[in-house]
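User: Modeling request: complex.
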Amino acid sequence: MRAMVLERPRTPLVMRERPAPEPGSGEILIEVAACGVCRTDLHVVDGELPNPKLPIVPGHEIVGRVAALGAGVAGLAIGERVGVPWLGFTCGVCPYCRSGRENLCDRPLFTGYTRDGGYATRALADARYCFPLPERRDDAEVAPFLCAGLIGWRSYRMAGAGEGTGAEGTGPQALGLYGFGAAAHILAQVAAWQGRRVYAFTRSGDDAAQAFAKSLGAVWAGGSDEMPPEPLDAAIIFAPVGALVPMALKAVKKGGRVVCGGIHMSDIPSFPYRLLWEERQVVSVANLTRADAREFLTLAPQAGVRSEVTRYPLEAANEALADLREGRLQGAAVLIP
Ligand SMILES: [Zn+2]
Ligand SMILES: [Zn+2]
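Assistant: Request completed. Predicted assembly structure:
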């Protein structure tokens, strides 16, 4: 098999030939068809997340087909299409696992961070953390659902949305999305489908991203330094920019919530208490649960969510990461081995 490997943080990935691994007990071997490129991969490559497994194969938005089954794997068949997300393993016994919060597990493994991921022609995964993906749409187009979609969905739930619809008056009616990348472009469609008013915030002057947001159902798009035309019920920040926290607090109304959806952010500047006062809240979202994944993967086809992807060959992983870092992408980058 071939894999793009990070040997040391802050160095380019290198192509390596390796023998294809044998699936161990409870594992499956996957022939990778597509793997999305997530901002978290950039944080791993840039050394912004502590203690990665090294060398590591990044990539946690894997779509592929089961090539071999390890001992004891039930419910998956050879040739079946599956998706592999960020959450690669949880212990099942810690207080978080036992209270339905496996996303906060004390001893987790994360795909493409602490176990090898999908920037490769083949990948191993723990079968219990994989999801069957009906062959309804293109492999590359479904890949961004596995993280941008799932973390976006968990952030959306945390913002008070998820159940019900805006038209029924359930959850935020006016929802701000800061940073219009892979996650926001998926979530905007879900929110608009549920009858919520989506306000998209991009880098100021990024006309292309603002037009893109409007094409996906946003009622307004502007720079993150602008105030929306109405106060927001909730906001989700996907851009890794701490300065957006006080800006978003300023844009939400009393009792409103600001959700930080990323795994890493630059420092949040100090801000006057009055921005937080009146029961405004700032919360973060960490990882995902398998329940989040099942919910989102069921809902996405109902909502008719489509993803806009730019395809790169596997060996161009460094270019895909650079394009993501520089904000040159619309939608999501996907590697095709
Ligand atoms: Zn646990
Ligand atoms: Zn991700």
